[in-house]
């Protein structure tokens, strides 16, 4: 199963932002920044990562529902539920 193009491009943009956030968290730790600030940034990165996954799977579900596809919607649903 491959992801459809539109969702993939949006997810890549989101993941690049997450990549930057994680780099920022590493720098914060290296600089000895406040625990609260580090945890807040980790939480934000985690939410952004979750949103990227949801975006990918939502696009795939739409694709499965609108296209004559060999993708099993139940399989995609299991992937979606695995994000939680």
Question: What is the N-to-C succession of helices and strands?
Answer: HHH
Structural class: mainly alpha
Over all CA atoms, what is the radius of gyration? 16 Å
What is the 3D shape? elongated
Largest sheet: none
Report the top-level CATH class. Answer: Mainly Alpha
Distance between the termini: 21 Å
Q: Report the CATH topology name.
A: Methane Monooxygenase Hydroxylase, Chain G, domain 1
Provide the domain count. 1
- Total number of β-strand segments? 0
Low-confidence stretches: none
Number of helices: 3
Q: Indicate the proportion of strand residues.
A: under 5%
What is the share of helical residues?
over 70%
What is the CATH architecture assignment?
A: Up-down Bundle
CATH homology group: Metal-sensitive repressor, helix protomer
Mean of residue pLDDT values = 83
Describe the structure.
- This protein is 80% helix and 0% strand.
- By secondary structure, the chain is mainly α.
- The chain has one domain: Methane Monooxygenase Hydroxylase, Chain G, domain 1, CATH 1.20.58.
- The relative contact order is 0.16.
Question: What are its keywords?
Answer:
single chain, 84 residues, Methane Monooxygenase Hydroxylase, Chain G, domain 1, 3 helices
Short description:
The chain has a single domain (5-81), classed as Metal-sensitive repressor, helix protomer (Methane Monooxygenase Hydroxylase, Chain G, domain 1, Up-down Bundle), CATH 1.20.58.1000. It is 80% helix and 0% strand. It has helices at 5-30, 35-66, 73-81.
């Amino acid at each position: 199963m491959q992801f459809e193009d539109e969702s993939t491009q949006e997810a890549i943009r989101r993941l690049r932002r997450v990549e930057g956030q994680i780099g920022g968290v590493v720098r914060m730790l290296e600089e000895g920044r406040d625990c609260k600030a580090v945890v807040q940034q980790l939480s934000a990165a985690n939410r952004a990562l979750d949103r990227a996954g949801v975006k990918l799977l939502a696009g795939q579900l739409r694709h499965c529902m609108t296209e004559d596809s060999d993708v099993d919607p139940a399989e995609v649903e299991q992937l979606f539920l695995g994000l939680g």
